[in-house]
Amino acid sequence: MGRRYDISNFTQHLNKFSSADRGNVLEKSGKERRFRFRFSNPLLQPFVIMRGISDGMINEEMMALLKQRSLRRDSL
Hints:
Order of helices and strands: HEEHH
Mean pLDDT: 87
Radius of gyration: 14 Å
Largest sheet: 2 strands, antiparallel
Helix content: 40-55%
Oligomer: single chain
Structural class: mainly alpha
Shape: globular
Strand order of the largest sheet: 1-2
């Protein structure tokens, strides 16, 4: 879309993906205004990343960010 978006811009979509309407792809936990989302099936995350690369939605810069986040998470 050519500009940055905050998580709050995606709240409606995240809520739909955590409901039966969209197949409960995400699990929602936490308190109101502090919800956290994660994939209900761990295999969905790499699939979404591979699909994003294949469709040209994830570029090299984004891949570097994903790798950094993965390394930080693994070191915790």
